[in-house]
From TrEMBL:
This is Choline transporter-like protein. Belongs to the CTL (choline transporter-like) family. InterPro entries: Choline_transptr-like (IPR007603). The lineage of its organism: Eukaryota, Metazoa, Chordata, Craniata, Vertebrata. Choline transporter. The keyword Repressor does not apply. Its main location: membrane. It comes from Pogonophryne albipinna. The keyword Membrane applies. It holds the Pfam family Choline_transpo. Keywords: Antiport, Cell membrane, Glycoprotein, Membrane, Mitochondrion, Mitochondrion outer membrane, Phosphoprotein, Transmembrane, Transmembrane helix, Transport.
Amino acid sequence: MRKYDGKGESRKFDPNFKGPIHNRGCTDILCCILFILALLGYFAVGIVAWSQGDPRKVIYPTDSRGQFCGQAGTPLEKKPLLFYFNILKCASPLVLLEFQCPTTQLCVETCPDRHMTLVKAKVGNKEDHEYYKKYCKDGVDFGKLSPPEILREGLCPAMLMPSKAFTRRCLPDLGTMKGGVVVVGNETSLDAGEGTNINATDVLEASKKSNMVVEARQVAMRIFEDYTQSWHWILLGLVIAMLVSLVFIVLLRFLAGIMIWVMIVLVILVIGYGIFHCYMEFASLKGEPGSNVTIRDLGLQTDFSVYLQIRQTWLAFMIILAIVEFFIILLLIFLRKRLMIAIALIKEASRAVGHVMSSLFYPILTFALLSVVIAYWAITAVFLSTSNDQVYKVFNNSECEYSRDNCDPKTFNISNVSSQCPDAECLFAFYGGETLYHKYLILFQFYNVFLFFWCANFVTALGQVTLSGAFASYYWAFKKPNDIPAFPIFASLGRALRYHTGSLAFGSLILSFVQAIRVLLEYLDHKLKGAQNKCAKFLLSCMKCCFWCLEKCIKFLNRNAYIMIAIYGKSFCPSAKNAFFLLMRNIVRVAVLDKVTDFLLFLGKLLIVGIVGIFSFFFFSGRIKAVEEAAPSLNYYWVPIMTLVVGSYLIAHGFFSVYAMCVDTLFLCFLEDLERNDGSAERPYFMSQNLLSILKKSNEEVKPVD
């Protein structure tokens, strides 16, 4: 009699079932066709973008005539920097980066390093003439034209001020002296060349945020210097992280139980040492001058080592680590009875990975495919964003009815605008366009983002189906390893691409829709940051939270649906339904065992990251006396440390993702095994003897026939 309790029909015994079905057909063909058409459209968008776009608009700054500064093979090849005639007309450096500063812009070889006015250059010697002419338009004759005539024609700037190159643009060399006095090139005021003086504070106010940009530039340069000094040590640390991850997985195969308990203890000890170290630093700063300053009072500092000199920083670190330690211990106490089954699953996963060693190298293929997807998306996005035309606008000093109107520099001098507004100029403003292509450019950008999500999710789904098919072949082999098919990874990959491209595209499409909506909500949230409507902000926050939860649920269902596709070869919807009902019929095991194994694998990642992080901290901070001389001299020793922590986590995640997929596949096969079989000679369990003993089950021995 069929067992049905509203959670789907239990699996029935099938004597012919021996693991992943080989006689299968193509699934979700319509979605496969849709995916292929979408890819063809994606390639078409890329071709159009590549034909219309020009990345030089991002790489090179553009002068007032729309020419690229420093572009190879042009007359401006040796003039890579952009100079502004009147920097005071630029509201902020952000305006400069958007090419919308309403003043004449000129490509130059170097930024001016001294203060000089046009009048002083005019009456000066030949050297002054030649120096000043480098920052004037071509063809200026100081001998024939007077300074008022030069300024009226807009041929030269009224003055030069000390500047430095930043993002290939000459920005004022702003700084501060003792007492907070603002200076430009060590001068507190500058002669504007028109009978007036300009204070350095006026320059600072006119180009607001310049000091923040300069500080950011200094921090960026220091970080870049740190990378140049420590890149080989970072590579060595990443190789060590890879070796530690590999050794950890190999040891799990033979010593899974011991390794997991050692791992749990080590994680607790590592976090405990972190708490102890933070307390010692907190205690050592007691009574030190300035150590009681709060982080809020300190504000944003470019020198991050300042934060390590105050007690509140170490107190915050200590509290965070203590909370993490408390929750880990609490979880271990409450889930201790389920740890044995979780360890048995991990042991079984270790054996499966040992018999399918090629699975450890499959993440390299996934990484390569994702790199191609990311590179194509990034290149297409750059070409789309630079596929606008040059837009010229009228800029003037006096009142003019045509101010900020579009203009054509080729016909501007013979137009009515130049006659009615004598001081007006037709200057390059920004990139835009009014053609049909430019009107739908935002849709092309959205299509690029959406197809990026779809392709990335498809690559991830392909990896999950491939690995689950290989590990399912291991589980359903009654006599291991004799019954395991040859080359299980390649066989599973071939089945996935040949029969289930449509199903993978279907599951990826659903997830991509949710991710695209989340991106749209983030965009709306960014736009509403300055709004005062609290109700709209609350609703938007609720929607962001709901779609975040929805994305997590879909990822979980997709993952299990792909396992069922790999095993039974059915379409996405029936596979998702069967996986969902199978999990619902075993909801207690799912809620505990599956999550316990995920937690244990997470502890493994945490341990690898902790080992690499702690050793890199002691090495780069110079606290290991034996290798103190070998450690590079750095501005911020946290730069290589954070790089190694993030890199080692990604490496550990790559190795453990194979393990996690193996555990999830074996877990679903384990649940199916319990429903299909009963341990009799006709219906024996396929699970390992270790799992049978933990569950207090056994297989009947087949009696020999006389």
